[in-house]
Structures are given as structure tokens and as C-alpha cells.
Amino acid sequence: MPETKETLKIGTRARIEMIDITADVQKAVDRWGIKEGLCVVYVPHTTAGVTINENADPHVQDDIVAHVSTLVPRRGAFRHGEGNSDAHIKVSLTGSSESIIVERGRLVLGTWQSIFFCEFDGPRKRKCHVKVVGG
Ligand code: ZN
Q1: For the whole model, what pTM was predicted?
Q2: Judging by DSSP bridges, how do beta strands 48-54 and 113-119 pair with one another?
Q3: What residue ranges define each of the domains in the chain, with the CATH number in brackets?
Q4: Banded pLDDT at 3 (limits 50, 70, 90)
Q5: Distance (Å, rounded) from C-alpha 110 to C-alpha 128?
Q6: N or C: which end of the chain has fewer CB within 10 A?
Q7: How far is the CA of 83 from the centre of ligand 1 (A)?
Q8: How many C-beta atoms surround the C-beta of residue 133 within 10 A?
Q9: What is the mean pLDDT of residues 23-48?
């Protein structure tokens, strides 16, 4: 069964931001030449995650960032002493991985969908693993 993995390096620029990584994930799929299979995007961090959402109107990303921040304010009655409890909670809202079907060498995403790396405690240097399993 053909399979491979690579790690995207992502430099985030804000404490909270969403970065469209769809083209980078598709490039990885292209590089491996896998035509049919499953692509897993996995973020190995506890304060950054990944989600799939609308790419057409950037206001959608702005709204997500603003309202996630309202849902989980930076300051609160947290016990975790590192000062980033809100970021740990936010990443549990997005999750740490997405699985995308690959057909005819292309990620199967809806017309308006993109894959977004979600930073919740930046700016930092981050990693995002991409693995495609053919079959
Ligand atoms: Zn922490």
C-alpha cells in the first residue's frame, strides 16, 4: 500500500489566526502521485489545530476568530499556570486533524471549502503533518 508523510512548516504572525494551507496539502498529494486514497492533516500541537471551512469570503474567517475569542476569553478563572488556557480550550473546539478523500489525485473539497491551520497562541513556528494513504 503506497503511503507517505511530510511536514509543513508554518510561521504564524498573530496570536490567533487562520491560514489557508489547502494548496500546500494538494502539492503534497501531487508530489506523491497518489490518485485514490485518504489524506490526513494532523497538527501536533496543543494550542494550534486545523479545520475546514469557507474560503470565499474572508469575513467568515474573521468571524470565526472573533467569536471563538468571545466564547473563550483570553483571561478567566483558569488553573493552568502557563497563561494560555484559552488556547488549549480553543484547539479542542477545532480539533487537531482532518481527513480528506483523494480522488483522481485531487483533494475532495466542496466548492467553498479550504483547509485552515488554526493558530491560537502565536506567533510561533508550527508544524503540520500531511499523510496520504493510497487505496
Ligand atoms: Zn499551556
Answers
A1: 0.95
A2: antiparallel
A3: 3-134 (2.60.120.460)
A4: low
A5: 22
A6: N
A7: 7
A8: 16
A9: 96
| CA 37–ligand 1 middle distance (angstroms) | 35
Cα 39 to middle of ligand 1, angstroms = 29
47: Cβ–Cβ under 8 A, 6 or more apart, which residues? 84, 87, 88, 90, 91, 120, 121
Give me ligand 1 centre to Cα 102, in Å: 35
Ligand 1 centroid to Cα of residue 46, in Å, is 8
Q: How many residues does the structure list for the chain?
A: 135
SS3 57: coil
Separation of CA 135 and ligand 1 centre (Å): 38
> Which of these, 17, 7, 26, lies nearest to 114 by C-alpha position?
26
CA 44 to ligand 1 center in whole angstroms: 14
Strand partners, 3: 133
| Per-residue pLDDT tens over the stretch 83-105 | 999 999 999 999 999 999 999 99
Peptide bond into 123 cis (omega under 30): yes
